[in-house]
Design brief:
Layout (H helix, E strand, L loop, with lengths): L49 E5 L5 E5 L11 E5 L4 E8 L3 H8 L10 E6 L2 H28 L4 E7 L5 E7 L7 H11 L2 E6 L2 H8 L10 H4 L9 H6 L6 H4 L14 H7 L10 E3 L2 E9 L4 E5 L9 E4 H12 L10 H6 L19 H14 L4
Helix pairs in contact: 2-3
Length: 379
Amino acid sequence: MIHRGCCKEGCSENLNDNQDKISNYFSGCAKLDDYDWLRDIPKGINEFDAVEIRFKNTRKAFYRNTNELRLKRGDLVAVEASPGHDIGIVSLTGEIVVHQMLKYGLNPAADDLRKVYRKAKQADIDKWKEAIDLETKTMLRSRRITEDLKLNMKIGDVEYQGDKTKAIFYYIADERVDFRELIKLLADEFRIRIEMRQIGARQEAGRIGGIGSCGRELCCASWITNFASVTTAAARYQEVSLNPQKLAGQCGKLKCCLNYEVTSYLDAQKDFPSKDVNLKTRQGDAYHVKTDIYRGLYWYSLAKESGVTLVPVPVERVGEIIMMNKKGELPENLVLLDDIQKVDISYQNDVGQDSLTRFDDKKSQQRRKKKKKNRNPRN
């Protein structure tokens, strides 16, 4: 049940009560679950009749509650499908569904929304459980069939419809695949309707899960449902080293977290002077090496090919020197005396310089050295 997302109060074990123990204030561990920001606002008489329902993986849809059922978050419902019906979990109800639909570019007054049939009965839940139990076996068998056909694709997951009449096969492929023969074999093997749905490397990594370089669970596996494009420009704005091994996530693409703080960096340096302009002083030309955005410092070196001696210069001072250079004036020094007192001019690049034994006890290290000397006495 974890792929659907278990709810509070052990709902994965007690599905018979139709989630009556679910609180409207708390959600489960499902990635697709939403937070109802309007839960404390009194409901109107004509409450919005559309609800948001989540299924497996990243599949979520909006349905029309035409039968005026009293639904709340966590309820298991039978909804319209093509063909038959499907079983889903209600994730949002009420006025907030309008804002959610507008967020995804949907018309809340549209007439083409599918219907919610009823709250799931015990027979519906039992059949849904049977369908879920078939998913792993179906996935493994479909992989063998794919290997026999020598198709360059990988079937990563299978999602059965609640009435066991249809299944969605999620696959990942680097190039276009002709799977017409595969669909025929899968339909003959499992006696169901087949739908093939291609997913990207990010969705596959989110489905598998894992631990990121930050030590926490992958964002794509815990909460991200919509993947925004990530470019190297985000790393450049944040002065991050363009090292592909460090910038790439477990999916092999650029890390999604590069987009988290890029707007803050852009806002902080919108008034910064250009760092492509070399500063001219009576001591010589100064060349930009790095930027400390949140401290408002540019680091300059008087040697073009060397970054050993770096001088931090406040961005205000950089702007002054650029204006002086345009007038043909050369300042005596890069930094004024007042700026030197305010800024710590020391800079050291400690990347890769930490010792693996820096946390060991110094006394124990000395004992080991003495033991080695005793074992190997000099002649």
